[in-house]
Design the sequence.
């Protein structure tokens, strides 16, 4: 990153808004968008998980928001650091994507393409039917996930700027 360039922080909302709780990521993105600082880029991804690797290359940090397949606690929020550890097996096998987040992160790790900071917010879903809205349990926590990310962003942006300044 060149001197004076804005630090790159990526927020990627994963999921399809027309597939029930798979729309949790896009729902959070809609709430985040008006509140994001200029040095944060927001994208929505509802298809090719591998494209995320290209999106976060060169970023100092990436925050991902995704739904996890149904379990016992719809609406449960998990925040995981994916640089220091792998996505736990229970999430890897419960992906709602053909080539899931766990495989994408591990491929990026093997290729040396992980950003220095990679955090995922996983929202446990209840239903993923085409045409369905968010379940009440997931709809109820969209604001909470948004608040958590907005609370975390100033520190992430500060660290990204410090990293860019030290690289200059």
Sequence:
């Amino acid at each position: 990153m060149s001197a004076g360039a804005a630090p790159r922080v990526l927020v990627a909302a994963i999921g399809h808004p027309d597939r029930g709780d798979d729309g949790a990521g896009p729902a959070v993105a809609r709430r985040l968008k008006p509140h994001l600082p200029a040095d944060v880029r927001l994208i929505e991804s509802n298809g090719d998980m591998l494209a995320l690797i290209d999106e976060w290359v060169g970023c100092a940090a990436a925050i991902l928001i995704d739904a996890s397949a149904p379990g016992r606690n719809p609406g449960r929020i998990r925040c995981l650091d994916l640089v220091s550890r792998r996505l736990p097996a229970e999430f890897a096998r419960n992906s709602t994507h053909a080539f899931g987040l766990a495989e994408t992160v591990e491929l990026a790790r093997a290729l040396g393409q992980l950003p220095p900071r990679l955090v995922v917010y996983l929202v446990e879903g209840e239903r993923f039917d085409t045409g369905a809205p968010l379940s009440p349990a997931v709809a109820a926590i969209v604001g909470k996930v948004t608040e958590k990310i907005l609370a975390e962003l100033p520190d992430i942006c500060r660290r990204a700027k410090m990293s860019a300044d030290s690289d200059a």
Observations:
- The longest helix spans residues 142-167.
